[in-house]
Design brief:
The chain has 161 residues and is mainly α. 68% of the residues lie in helices and 6% in strands. The protein is built from 7 helices and 3 strands. It has a 3-stranded antiparallel beta sheet. Strand 2 and strand 3 form a beta hairpin. Helix 1 packs antiparallel against helix 2 and helix 3 crosses helix 4.
Length: 161
């Protein structure tokens, strides 16, 4: 079947492929791409199943993953049986702020490697020292960088940029 995809459909497919390249299953990427371009911004799981032409179980699993990653927010409304989902206000910043923990883990790992190596382990020590230095710098600088970007976006939304 070689039907031409609309702009939004193409974007949704590409979003899924990019997620897949990052080691995440394709469906969470498709769901996230959909939530970025759909109207209205809030959608039920049934809406997504229908519009993405996907299995309910796949969309459900994708939404759980995206919620855990802080990419998606779920809302319930009085008198409505279905939950509504939307892209989180700052999904990229939230996911990047979680990177700091990874930087700490990698810095600590390099430190443990350095502690077990003899002082004369030239190449190995140099590589681990560079690893430790990089992750220590990222751990120190990353939160401020993410916060600056969020603040810039906030000012732009308020008409200050």
């Amino acid at each position: 079947m070689d039907r031409k995809l609309s702009g939004p459909e193409q974007f949704i497919q590409e979003f899924g492929l990019v997620f897949e390249q990052f080691g995440v299953p394709r469906m969470p990427g498709r769901v996230m791409g959909y939530l970025l371009v759909c109207e209205p911004a809030e959608q039920t799981m049934g809406d997504m199943v229908k519009n993405l032409k996907a299995a309910k179980s796949s969309v459900s699993t994708a939404l759980k993953m995206l919620e855990l990653l802080s990419f998606v927010e779920r809302r319930a409304y009085p008198g409505k049986r279905a939950d509504y989902y939307r892209a989180a206000a700052h999904p990229w910043a939230a996911s990047l702020q979680g990177s700091n923990m990874k930087f700490s883990i990698m810095r600590d790992l390099a430190q443990r490697g350095l502690q077990m190596l003899p002082e004369d382990a030239g190449r190995s020590r140099r590589m681990l020292e560079e690893m430790q230095e990089l992750y220590a710098a990222l751990e120190e600088e990353w939160p401020a960088l993410v916060e600056r970007v969020i603040e810039r976006q906030r000012r732009r939304r308020q008409g200050g940029l």
